[in-house]
Amino acid sequence: MIGYHGKRKEFFEDNRIKAQLKSDFNLLYKVLANTFKATIYVLAFGMIIAYMYMPWYLYPLAIMLIAAAKMMLEEAQYENTEYNFYATKLEYKDGLYNKSRVIKYENIREIIMTQNVFERLFGIGTIRILINFTDAINSNEMHEKYNNRIKFRFSNGIKIPCVSNVHEQHELIKRIINEGTE
Asked: 86 by DSSP, 3-state: which?
């Protein structure tokens, strides 16, 4: 892709990847996190399940099945997803769900790095790249449709989960994006 850079009329090709991120599948972290989430799901829906006469000894089995299914899906998704950072854009490719998205750096509003308790224990974290939703919409029809209903959500961008060396990767991404918007 050919792009325009700055105030000078200099053209360049934006096809060289400056950085590539992939989520790391940490088995022990995923077992703990997904078992915790599955336990909450089973307990939350336990009242409904109890009315269906599900024996109490099947609850642990239900927790294990839910956690295992979620881990297998996440592992396949992490394996097939990549985040490529170029000079002026971010390209997100998800091979599992056959999704692709390109975000120009000028539409990026904020880059957030978070770590929950489990992520800190395993030295990983999550990076969220939030975009200006209204700037990224090209169609006036789409803008009118969503006008008054746009709220702050993390879905207005890209979430990169389970990033190793999250602090260093966060700083690298911020530097690349800042260079691309100068």
From this structure: coil
Q: What is the CATH number of domain 2-181?
A: 2.30.29.30
Count Cβ atoms below 10 Å from residue 131 Cβ, excluding itself.
20
Could you tell me the two tokens for 3? Answer: 């792009």
Residues 137-182: pLDDT tens digits?
A: 444 444 444 544 444 333 578 899 999 999 999 999 999 999 988 7
**For the chain, percent helix, then strand, then coil, each to nearest 5?**
45, 30, 25
Degrees (nearest 5) of the Cα angle 146, 81, 159?
45
Domain chopping of the chain, boundaries: 2-181
Q: 27-44 vs 59-79: helix axis angle to the nearest 10? A: 130
Specify the amino acid at residue 59.
Answer: Y
